[in-house]
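Q: What would this chain look like folded?
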Amino acid sequence: MKREDISKIFEGATEEQINAVLDINSADIGNARKKLEAERDNYKTQLETAQTALKDFEGVDVKELNGRITSLTADLAAKESEYQAKIAEMEFNAVLDAAISGSNAKNAKSVKALLDIEALKASKNQSEDIAAALGKVKTEADYLFVSEEPIYNPVAPTGTPNPGGKMSLIEAMKYKNEHPDADVSTLI
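A: My prediction, written as structure tokens:
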């Protein structure tokens, strides 16, 4: 904005008024200029940073990078499937161990040896198939499991002293009380 432009717009304006308008205009232009220069400097810095980053990629073989990315992706997929297999193995072993302990097996390792583990792992309904396999093993090798039958013929002490062995004094006195006619001097 020029002095002549202001005097044409404001006819009869004094020199002080024109100077005041020019000062306001200069301040506005100065503020806008500072803001634009700050933005320009910011963009220059960003451009320099981007150019520096691009220099780091000079000489990089894109095909090699794509090959490495493909290789790493395949490795990640292999590790993921390996971990999933390990998790499935642990879950199967937990189900199997719980079923064996619930079946009152005397020795879990012996019972596992008689089971077709691979067929049970491949089964769709593992819990039922494990229970069926344990039932089959229980009927074929019931000696591996704690018996659920009551004992019909328990062996009880006969009440006679240990033949050929010596008794303690307490045992001999007890025997004498139960058998008053016995000679305990030979038993001690």
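Residues 3-55 form one domain.
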